[in-house]
Write the structure tokens for this entry.
Amino acid sequence: MIEFHLDGRSGVAPYLQLIHQVRHALRLGLLHEGDQLPKVKDVAAGLAINPNTVLKAYRELEYEGLVGARPGIGTFVTGTLDGGSLAAHGPLRRELQRWLAKARRAGLDDESIQALFASTFRSAIEEDIA
Amino acid sequence: MTAVIATEGLGKRYRTRWALAGCTLSIPAGHVVGLVGPNGAGKTTLLNLATGELAPTTGTIEVLGGRPAAGPAQLARVGYLAQDVPLYAGLPVADHLRLGAHLNPGWDADMARRRIERLDLDPRQKAGTLSGGQRAQLALTLATAKRPELLILDEPVASLDPLARREFLQDLMETVGERQVSVVLSSHLISDLERACDYVIVLVDSRVRVAGPVDELLATHHLLSGPRRDPASLPDQMQVVSASHTDRQSTLLVRTSGPVLDPAWAVSEVSLEDLVLAYMRQAASPAPRNDHRHLEVRK
């Protein structure tokens, strides 16, 4: 079972934050097929948010085919997001760590590293689209 | 579905002062409605009209399809928690529950007892010696144990410290999740209600400034910034909620159902708090009421 949290200052709508957290947990393998999501009532009580907000997030996830509702029981994970790539995370992470070490040696500070990654990421996406 | 509260030209006058005027609303069932506005805006008046404690000077109001406080059946359908948390100071917690059971035919004694246990309230303790948070929780227990279809709460968290405030709202949201109850709660602070409400009504100077589902309001309001420009030159379907200008730049909060196409504007989303504050700040300017005049002129 995962536990939700809300960032009040992020400006991201609460239902979207819940969706992101489920997707994130799926991607990192914290949630597996068959796992139950927290009950709507419990999320509402825990975060002091409107139960409709939780329902909306769960419905959206259902629409994406990631979860399914079993009436009277709860909402369960029915899909995965790792695309079978979870096994590849380890080696990729190690490569990234090596790259980070290289960037540091070249004198880049944290902000420059993030900016470089973000701009490379963006241009790669643009090339994909083009 | 019947509206939980439907009003038509509703108004209430005390001697010469209108506490509420020209209020036309239709609040659908199944929402947690935040009634927001500065102190003295008319929130309590509207809620008292809904509970039948006040009679309208003009217009009509229906609650759950019936006349407010029309009879025992109507009274049983509405739970009301007044601003001053009405409890009997000299009466122990347990006697409050007994009284509730005695006065309300649909009383859920089980639920009331469980809640009191979970809140860790001593049934023998007198209500007058409870903390502010405990008093609010006890009053909420009494209001929900009668199993109402509509729960009306007047400034329920205003006098609570932040922790008690959060606990009260957690409890309220759990109740909403457990049973099909619609809620209308008032506050002069939107930040109290931002997480809890999915419908909002902004009341200022005895008038409704804006009302609607939060999602819809957020989707139709945008913050525009760009080169200085006269708001009057904007497309007709854009309603300007607030505008500020420097000598070069204009920043506008607009309401529009369509997309903003003009590339001169940088468009950003607004938070519920900013949106509500913008409507509150429109002090005496009659901008939203202009609509009618606009329409008349165009006819």
Observations:
- DSSP finds ten helices and 13 strands in chain B.
- Residues 215-298 of chain B form one domain.
- Residues 260 and 267 of chain B are 8 Å apart (CA to CA).
- Residues 287-299 of chain B have pLDDT under 50 and may be disordered.
